[in-house]
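Notes from hallway chat w/ T.B., transcribed later so I don't forget. T.B. wanted the structure written out for a chain they're using in a teaching module, and asked if we could keep both sequence and structure tokens in one place. Agreed to drop them here.
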Amino acid sequence: MSMTEELKVTLTAALSPRFLEVLNESHMHSVPRGSESHFKVVVVSEKFEGQMLLKRHRLVQGILQKEIARIKALSLHTFTPEEWANRAEAGTESPRCASHTAKERK
């Protein structure tokens, strides 16, 4: 199973999300082709109700403890269903890796 699928299965079982997106963003960084090292997770769950952002991230990191040990970077975007419904369209796009961007300019 790919790391993307592993992350999806683990988060789905633990959080019963209303929305879950797991993106492998390794191609945006200076890593070998086909790497599974950099991920962005957007997750919407009732389990985040009443929790500050740091507590949400700690919850997800705890759930993914085994998987996090095998990846380099994890960007988390955690929302309650109400926040997700009211969110601005911008705000979850990941920045380009500086070394990767420098390579593109050459």
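Follow-up for T.B.: The CA atoms of residues 30 and 100 lie 5 Å apart. Might be a good example for the class.
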